């Protein structure tokens, strides 16, 4: 039974998502409890899967009983099991928060919203586990379609952002699929592990170079790597508050996890000669994205946009980690990725709570809003500390390992970029923190709306606790990640 | 986009004959998918096409509107059948979608696989048919109310 846990983690949200229209037709008020129950079940199964992977070792799950490379393979190792667990927890947090906003915030689209959230979670789990290029494409499409729909939920202005996102996202998946086709034509396989065995000797061919280039371009758009990030800030800023944390925490992270998988398990093991060039490209792109993203974040005036650009900078940091010839940096990058998912969820839930309760969207308005509630302020401070990367947070563990890796690989530019991004992160968080500590209620802002019930408090507190927990108790997980990427 | 009944005797007679034939052929394609080209997707599209032609020619009627309501609500049923049968295989100890794990007394393994593939294909067919028809219905409603968010 423990063998089948990855499939169950995927099946529970998928089944609930497709059952949602029927359930909603029968009884509209049943949608939310069903969604919450399915997500809780998913979280329990994902935790069980993580535990079983940690105890009995990685699972290679053959869907339909067809063994890889002929069949479709799902790989549940420490990295993917951790990501799946984090995804289900983020789903729960977002649902806890969206309950407080009530039906009005969804413009009456209760059934589609809950169905799409579950579909997004199922798709993310699929992307995380999938071990072959074509299945990754399919699940990336599931995630993206759900994300477009979630951005469009409020209607109005958001429709335009969603349409732009849809166009750019469709372009990205087309590029990705084109790259997959090149690889398939060249090697006759779609399985990533099998690809690593067949690629050596074929790498001089232009098809391999084209395949890598197209896959990188496609995934770069999906993960919003800096020069091709333009869709992200608008999409996240216009997305409803009850969906933005989900998008910020999971969608771009899924794409970069795919790139990590293809790079570390598919291309690098096959690739002795061109390795240095590829590392240099990935690292260079990461340096540009991390410093550029952080600089752009400093220029923003809206809370959600600051966090969105912060996320873009962090995608760059993960790319820097993946672009070093060092297992430590790669493991650190994956660890940072897991952390970033948690931190982004926490930050966007904070932005949502502040927008809902205090009607504040711009940074300057925080001063007058009188935000004194420790349940709101403390998680923000912890998430900010994690984003900057100060111990004892998970952000520090990831960043430290990436930094050690850049030293190991003898790459001073990457190390300098890492330190610079850290300082810039501090710089763009400073105004938010400064204003929140000076925050005095002014009459023009009105009274805070609603009560912070325990689901919202939990949605705020759990990411903060996870950021701290991943920092303090992260050693075991970090060494497991090192094992997965093939380090000592 | 769906208008009152189309005023042409030839058109109505032809469609009245054509629709059942297309539907029977769709079912044939569904079963034939076991042995050759065809299967749930194509069968679903063909079935949906027959319904769409029917809608375009016989047009806007009260029963059509009621059917539209129900159809839009049953959007996920086909996928539910697909995922459900895939999941039932887990109970028999197989992997997800490993139809040999489906426990049905009195059937040997090949027959179980045959049956399960047929059922999942039927699920795919239902889903595709409902999705295609519901696109037409959504466009119809959007055009009627002038509300682009319908």
Description:
The complex is a heterodimer of chains A (488) and B (150). Chain A is mainly α. Chain A has a domain of 215 residues. Chain A is built from 19 helices and 2 strands. Chain A has a two-stranded antiparallel sheet with strand order 1-2. Chain B is mostly helical. In chain B, helix 1 runs antiparallel to helix 2, helix 2 runs parallel beside helix 5 and helix 4 runs antiparallel to helix 5. Chain B is elongated. Chain B starts with 8 loop residues before the first helix and ends in a 5-residue tail after the last helix. The model of chain B has no long low-confidence stretch (mean pLDDT 81). Chains A and B meet through helix 1 of A and helix 3 and helix 4 of B.
Keywords, please?
heterodimer; A: 488 residues; mainly alpha; two-stranded antiparallel ribbon; 2% strand; B: 150 residues; 5 helices; 71% helix
Topology:
The complex is a heterodimer of chains A (488) and B (150).
Chain A: H1 5-26, H2 31-56, E1 59-62, E2 73-76, H3 78-101, H4 110-129, H5 133-152, H6 157-187, H7 192-198, H8 206-223, H9 231-238, H10 244-267, H11 275-298, H12 303-322, H13 327-357, H14 366-369, H15 374-388, H16 394-408, H17 412-438, H18 454-472, H19 475-484
Antiparallel strand pairs in A: 1-2
Helix pairs in contact in A: 1-2, 1-4, 2-3, 2-4, 3-4, 3-10, 3-13, 3-18, 4-5, 4-10, 5-6, 5-10, 6-8, 6-9, 7-10, 8-10, 9-12, 10-12, 10-13, 11-12, 11-17, 12-13, 12-16, 12-17, 13-15, 13-16, 13-18, 13-19, 15-17, 15-18, 16-17, 16-18
Chain B: H1 9-32, H2 40-58, H3 62-73, H4 77-91, H5 109-145
Low-confidence stretches of chain B: none
- What share of the residues of chain A does DSSP label as strand, in percent? under 5%
Q: Mean pLDDT of chain B, as a whole number?
A: 81
Q: Please state the CA-atom Rg of chain B, rounded to the nearest Å.
A: 19 Å
Number of strands of chain A: 2
Helical element count of chain B?
5
Name the chain pair with the biggest interface and residue counts per chain.
Answer: A-B, 23 and 23 residues
Query: Which class of secondary structure composition applies to the elements of chain A?
Result: mainly alpha
Determine Rg of chain A (CA atoms, Å): 21 Å
β-strand amount of chain B: under 5%
User: How would you spell out the order of helices and strands of chain A?
Assistant: HHEEHHHHHHHHHHHHHHHHH
User: Mean pLDDT score of chain A, rounded?
Assistant: 87
- Give the end-to-end Cα distance of chain A, rounded to a whole number of Å: 31 Å
Overall morphology of chain B: elongated
Q: How many independent structural domains of chain B? A: 1
